[in-house]
Write a structure and sequence with these properties.
With 661 residues, the protein is of the alpha/beta class. It is built from 14 helices and 30 strands. It has an 8-stranded parallel barrel with strand order 1-2-5-6-7-8-9-10, surrounded by 5 helices. Helix 9 runs parallel beside helix 10 and helix 12 packs antiparallel against helix 14.
């Protein structure tokens, strides 16, 4: 079995794609607490974790102040930007994706703390409609009013290019910090391209991130058409179907088979459901009337479907109302990590994209997956059930319920067995799914003690199998080699710290005991830019032969006798985020990375891509992009160029200087 803590999402059976897995909503949690729970989040089968907004905000300490921001920059009372980076790095190790809640529709009513350049009236809609004192009421069926009104706070002018630039800069910074996806608060209040607003393509396209938008009830106007246009840029929520599912189980019967929007042609792959959200738990408190037993049944019935995703919210206490919930307080984990929720998540992940079939049979919600298994949720109580095998999808056979352990029989037409006390049964062949739920939450073990459970096969004929690392191309402060086989690992992550071999000038590790394993390299400090291959990618195959890892992430067979200092060492070493610098000097326009003789957001985007290792810059492009002249391309360079583009002065950007290339 592969090691369960440091390699691939499949170690926990997690989905590799957002849309094939489910989300844990850690509302109000400090980022450090989310980080500490990442091993358990992975073990419970959640593909992603969602944070509260991390923008600076007005007010304290009630939870809703997080939704009244004063800027677009990471870091507030639930955690700093460094806390966010640390969370993302930890999540990446376990294959868990991080979603950050972003508020871009409005700013707080108090403008004293917002950026000076966004205080002008042209940056707000000022429609005269809204819920603020003295304003007219909003017609929620009127699409223009939905997108231009105030919802109790000043509505940002989403059509304005400067507003779009500020939000895109924030998105790019979150990406650079390691964030994988964004939940857009109040998304229905921001207009679409067909309505003359270019906000959504400006902030979502080309990010390489997952996006989903909060759309409560109807977006106004022709609801189905509007929703379909939103799904060109993001997934969307269906709160009415989500709430109706919960109401159904509160009434001791299963829900209808089709969601509000899927019934009107919105693709299921663009929908996010929930058993409850912070709006239902704190606003109006309707889901507080549902206990965990009901919430988990509603979640099970929607979280096992193909295409759509489901959100599970960690409650903060059991009797909080709108005003008493506090940000910076960790929520409950017992329900989120319960056996039934984990079993449903594991089922969802294991079924992948297999087609599903919904049946309402004998007061049970029955979801079958083609060529797979089934989830059965009883409308009321527990005990024996005999329900249809919808579409004949579930594979006939005898199975153990993943929750109760009771035996279920599936035939071509029926499914029968005894449902346990949870009212939920999860039935499929899970024997091929390796999930380690005994997770060590004490933190990263950096011990270099070898694991005795190793591949101890015969050393390959002709000599030892050695691994070489040419650090002249990377200049890491330390080099660690982690190797795993089908039966073990050379040490706990990050592996064994390598020493420089005086004979070759390379870092060297004898891998005789792991000659058929897979190797990974890092600096031992959990820096994603100093690790190869990236998390969620398989290690480099050793294949029984000595190998050398060199510049450009090359991985080649090598003859040990040919590894010499003169072959591999270079006169100087530098970080992998830079290119080799020679003594040649040229004149460059600082910030003009693409060579078009001007400095723009296009240059900032090229710099950011290089900073997050999506591309490389060299020569004059590198010199122009390294605006702080520290011989590295970083997100700070990109941010400086973005700020210059919107009017901030800079000592060197926009000026022609001589630099070495």
């Amino acid at each position: 079995m592969l090691p369960t803590k440091f390699l691939l999402p499949t170690n926990y059976g997690l989905a590799s794609d957002f849309k094939n897995g489910n989300i844990l909503h850690c509302l109000n949690w400090p980022l450090s607490d989310i980080k500490a729970e990442i091993p358990n989040i992975a073990a419970a089968g959640f593909t992603a974790v969602q944070t509260s907004p991390i923008q600076a905000h007005d007010g304290t300490p009630n939870w809703y102040w997080l939704y009244q921001p004063t800027n677009f920059w990471p870091g507030n009372d639930i955690g700093s930007e460094q806390d966010l980076k640390d969370l993302c790095a930890e999540a990446e190790r376990y294959g868990v994706k991080v979603i950050v809640d972003v508020v871009a529709n409005h700013f707080a009513g108090n403008h004293s703390n917002i950026p000076d350049e966004l205080k002008g009236g042209e940056y707000y809609h000022n429609s005269g409609f809204g819920t603020s004192d003295g304003q007219q009421g909003v017609d929620w069926g009127n699409r223009w009013q939905v997108t231009h009104c105030d919802i109790g706070m000043p509505d940002l002018n989403s059509e304005h290019s400067l507003v779009q630039q500020y939000v895109r800069r924030y998105v790019d910074q979150l990406k650079a910090d390691g964030v994988d996806g964004i939940r857009w608060d109040a998304a229905k209040h921001i207009a679409l391209p067909s309505e003359g607003c270019g906000f959504w393509p400006a902030v979502t396209e080309g990010t390489g991130m997952y996006h989903y938008g909060e759309i409560l009830d109807s977006p106004g106007g022709d609801g189905a058409s509007v929703m379909k246009e939103y799904t060109k840029y993001m997934s969307v929520t269906d709160n009415q179907y989500s709430n109706n599912t919960r109401y159904a189980f509160q009434g001791s019967h299963p829900m209808d088979g089709f969601g509000q929007w899927t019934a009107q042609g919105v693709p299921a792959s663009g929908i996010v459901y929930w058993a409850e959200s912070h709006d239902t738990y704190y606003n109006g408190m309707e889901s507080q009337q549902a206990n965990t037993y009901i919430i988990n049944k509603a979640y099970a019935a929607i979280a096992c479907r193909n295409g759509s995703q489901a959100l599970y919210m960690s409650r903060q206490g059991s009797n909080n109302n709108h005003g008493s919930a506090r940000y910076g307080v960790k929520g409950e984990t017992g329900a989120a990590f319960s056996k039934e929720v984990a079993a449903v998540n594991h089922f969802r992940n294991a079924m992948g994209t297999k087609a599903d079939y919904y049946s309402n049979s004998n007061n049970c919600a029955v979801i079958t997956r083609q060529g797979g298994g089934a989830v059965i949720v009883k409308g009321d109580g527990n005990g024996h059930v005999d329900v249809v095998n919808g579409g004949g999808y579930a594979t006939p056979g005898t199975y153990k319920d993943e929750i109760s352990g009771n035996t279920f029989t599936i035939t071509a037409s029926n499914i029968s067995g005894d449902i346990g006390d949870t009212g939920i049964a999860v039935i499929y062949d899970s024997s091929s799914v390796v999930i380690d739920t005994n997770v060590d939450t004490s933190g990263q073990d950096t011990s270099t003690t070898s694991n005795p459970n190793t591949d101890t096969g015969t050393v390959v004929q002709g000599g030892s199998v050695n691994i070489y690392f040419d650090n002249s191309a990377y200049n890491w402060s330390n080099v660690y080699c982690y190797i795993y086989t089908d039966t073990g690992e050379n040490a706990k992550w990050p592996g064994v710290k390598l020493e420089k071999d005086s004979a070759t000038g390379l870092y060297k590790y004898n891998a005789d005991a792991f000659k058929n394993g897979n190797a990974m390299f890092s600096d031992g400090n959990n820096d994603a830019s100093k690790r190869y291959p990236a998390d969620q990618q398989p290690g480099l195959t050793i294949g029984g032969k000595s190998k050398v890892f060199g510049s450009g992430n090359s991985w080649n067979d090598t003859d040990d006798s040919k590894q010499t200092t003169t072959e591999t060492e270079k006169p100087s070493e530098k970080d992998s985020s830079t290119d080799t610098v020679t003594s040649t000097e040229v004149s460059v326009l600082m910030g003009d990375v693409n060579g078009d003789n001007k400095v723009s957001l296009r240059d900032a985007s090229l710099v950011l891509k290089a900073a997050v290792k999506k591309s490389q810059l060299s020569g004059t492009a590198f010199a122009a992009g390294d605006v702080d002249s520290n011989s590295q391309i970083t997100a700070a360079d990109s941010l400086a160029i973005q700020r210059y583009d919107i009017g901030y002065p800079h000592d060197v950007i926009g000026k022609t200087v001589k630099k070495a290339v």
